[in-house]
Amino acid sequence: MRTVTCAAPVNIAVIKYWGKRDERLILPVNDSISFTLSLDEMYSKTTVSISPTFTEDKFWLNGKEESLENPRIQNCLKEIRRRASKRKLEGSDEDVLNWHVHICSANNFPTAAGLASSAAGYACLVYALGQVYGVEGDLSSIARQGSGSACRSVHGGLVRWYKGEMEDGTDSFARPIAPANHFPNLRVIICVANDGRKKTGSTEGMRRTVQTSRLMQYRIRESVGLRIDSMMQAIKEKNWSAFCDLTIADSNEMHAVCQDSFPPCIYMSDTSHAVASLVHQYNEIQISKGNLNNKVCYTFDAGPNACLFVPGAVANEMLSLLLRTFPPSSPPNADNFIRGMKPQTLSLSKELESIADENAQSGRLKYLIHTKVGEGPRVLTEDGAHLLDPVSGLPTESGGMA
Ligand SMILES: Nc1ncnc2c1ncn2[C@@H]1O[C@H](COP(=O)(O)OP(=O)(O)OP(=O)(O)O)[C@@H](O)[C@H]1O
Ligand SMILES: C[C@@](O)(CCOP(=O)(O)OP(=O)(O)O)CC(=O)O
Hints:
Elements: E1 2-9, E2 11-15, E3 20-22, E4 27-28, E5 32-36, E6 43-51, E7 58-61, E8 64-66, H1 71-86, H2 93-96, E9 100-107, H3 117-133, H4 140-143, E10 158-161, E11 174-178, E12 186-192, H5 202-212, H6 214-236, H7 240-259, H8 270-288, E13 297-300, E14 306-311, H9 315-325, H10 331-335, E15 338-340, H11 350-359, E16 367-372, E17 378-379
Parallel strand pairs: 7-9, 15-16
Antiparallel strand pairs: 1-6, 1-17, 2-5, 3-4, 5-10, 6-9, 7-8, 10-11, 12-14, 12-16, 13-14
Bound molecules: adenosine-5'-triphosphate and the ligand C[C@@](O)(CCOP(=O)(O)OP(=O)(O)O)CC(=O)O.
């Protein structure tokens, strides 16, 4: 039996992927750019075992057995096995391709809640399969066939997914464009307003947008390509202020085309807009003081939860501002309100206190996840890492917990 366990990170797009030019191959209508987040706080963990004694392929997700009929998982498996069979196979490796596979995966954060679980999940699956079958080379174009955004979680730091021009998708892959410390000491705060399953998934939402929104035609033809160029320039020049403005503009444009779809896809809630407005008020203060490097930006995926990118110098201040503006409604929530990296001192200037008090709405946010930018997937070798028992190939007691 061969068993490998890997962890893969979430990524958050700053120029969004929204819309496909090919649904089956998962080819996007535009390039996108993302930050990969640290594995320390949010990750998918996947164990893959192959054995001549297994009688069928099996898959467990978050502790529950699921069907492997899912065509997206099947496409990833097929492509990995095809690549493995193309390699020069030594001895027993040829048999290995006929062995059945057991896959057990779990996320340590909510699944299908607009927190990029499919991105981390499929990147992890493909990375772990790649390790088991000894597949080398670009894995991003395989992860893409699981979930588009997953192709960016195969790398760390700032990553660009090139949409490609070819009909067969061979030139649609992700590449790292800058390391994780490119903007040094950057923090990420995810403001979780709702971590339940979302009503309209990204796949259905983007299909509806491509089919019905006229504003989407403007985004594709006139807008997002230029924004990608400006973003590449801002990254090259380490122009944080421009980076923030472009990130905010692209999130707003994505949600505008969602709203313009028929029937509309509404992902942002009143709470989302309140967080966005707080960030704009905060930035106005920084701009008025000439501290452009202290600006904060927000972006929203297909859900109401804001993801904030925050310079390290003001991360504690931003956490304090969020805590005072959106305090937890009841004591049990207060204990675990700021998850992830522990903030140091929480204090606010009089000016920020009054902004918080003007906007205060308790109980609007369930919790915050405080994390940072990070590296791509990795193999886990520590004792007890496996989610499948290396002898029986069945889920261990911790099989449902990442
Ligand atoms: N660890 C995992 N391994 C394999 N598949 C996973 C894993 N986690 C999530 N998925 C797949 O991704 C689906 C959720 O994807 P969906 O796009 O609906 O939500 P999301 O990725 O959390 O949100 P968004 O893409 O909008 O940020 C799950 O139903 C499951 O099929
Ligand atoms: C809003 C987004 O997070 C959309 C992610 O969509 P998915 O990658 O989940 O969609 P499928 O390719 O259909 O699986 C923006 C982004 O990550 O770029």
